[in-house]
Design a protein that fits this description.
The protein has 291 residues and is α/β, with parallel strands linked by helices. Helices cover 29% and strands 27% of the residues. It has helices at 10-19, 60-76, 105-114, 147-157, 171-181, 224-235, 254-260, 282-286; strands at residues 2-4, 28-31, 37-40, 49-53, 81-86, 119-123, 141-144, 161-165, 184-194, 197-202, 212-220, 240-248, 265-269, 277-279. The protein has a seven-stranded mixed β-sheet with strand order 10-9-8-11-12-13-14. The longest helix is centred in the N-terminal third of the chain and has 17 residues, at 60-76. The chain binds ribose-5-phosphate.
């Protein structure tokens, strides 16, 4: 087996290789002056299983193409099997045609990967209208969860927390995490008007007065969802607010927005590399039967 990466998730790729006692050989990858991609493997692949560890952020579309180029080249060079570990998988939120004429991007992305790789492993991917990855992937596809890692982080860092899911979808994570650490949990109802305009309200009343609130979501992108939840928690008397996400995309001015909304601490897992990474997902991957 050999582990590589197209450039994102280098930290996870390196530490996974170390844990699995497998060689890590990053690809040489660059762009020609006209933008065409150049890609080169630096290790023999004949007869081997190749594991590509590559998050689809930053640069989601470049990531998709780089992974496809790498997988097809690996097969061309004799690799027996190509496994993609995508700690963050992009395009999953466009899972229906919200307006006529739109691309259902998650299906297109999955279709391209189905033709290029033999197996995919991802973490807390956005399964909202799809109940499973099997709806879009024909290859073996696994969705791991960072819930237990997040629960341990909260247990070790926040005293008497109240867990909040900022919208209906996030309640599944918030509730599981709260149960693991015996904490109170509540959920907000989110109405999304546009990608930059959301409103939330509490639908399961729990007192937040003088409480250490932890808002848990799968993704923080523009930060609007968590910022609105934080403002609401603050208005309801919360003493401190910690925001924890699996995938910290933090686009635009998300971090400033969260701080302005009263979030005291922002924490993410390392599925996307960012200074807020405090929770390492490598142990989840190392526990899998890869190969
Ligand atoms: C949405 O369904 C997700 O679970 C997140 O709540 C959402 O992607 C966060 O986006 P933003 O940070 O832009 O509000």
């Amino acid at each position: 087996m050999s582990i590589t990466s197209c450039g994102n998730s280098l930290n996870i790729a390196r530490s996974l290789a170390k844990k699995l006692k497998t060689p890590f050989s990053p690809l040489t990858i660059s762009s020609f002056p006209d933008g065409d991609r150049y890609l080169k493997f630096n290790t023999p692949l004949k007869g081997k299983t190749l594991v590509i560890v590559h998050s689809f952020q930053p640069n989601p579309h470049q990531s998709l193409l780089d992974v496809i180029f790498a997988a097809k080249t690996a097969k061309d060079l004799g690799a027996k099997k190509v496994i993609l570990i995508a700690p963050y998988l992009a395009y999953m939120r466009q899972d229906i045609r919200f307006h006529s004429g739109e691309a259902i991007s998650s299906r297109v992305m999955a279709d391209l990967l189905n033709r290029s790789i033999d197996r995919i492993i991802t973490i807390d991917t956005h399964l909202h209208r799809y109940h499973s990855l099997k709806v879009i992937f024909t290859i073996p596809a696994q969705n791991l969860t960072a819930n237990s890692l997040i629960a341990s982080y909260i247990q070790n860092h926040v005293k008497n927390p109240v867990i909040i899911g900022p919208d209906g979808e996030s309640y599944q994570w918030a509730d599981t995490i709260a149960k693991q650490i015996n904490a109170l949990v509540t959920v907000f109802k989110k109405t999304r008007f546009t990608s930059r305009n959301v409103k939330v309200k509490m639908i399961k009343p729990v007192s937040l007065r003088n409480k250490n609130v932890v808002i848990v979501d799968d993704i923080i992108s523009t930060g609007h969802t968590v910022a609105e939840a934080a403002k609401k928690a603050k208005a309801l008397g919360a003493k401190s607010i910690t925001a924890i996400c699996v995938h910290g995309l933090f686009v635009e001015d998300a971090i400033q927005k969260l701080k302005k909304a009263g979030v005291n601490k922002i924490i993410s897992t390392n599925t996307i590399e960012h200074p807020t990474n405090k929770i390492d997902v490598t142990p989840l991957l190392a526990d899998e039967d890869i190969g």
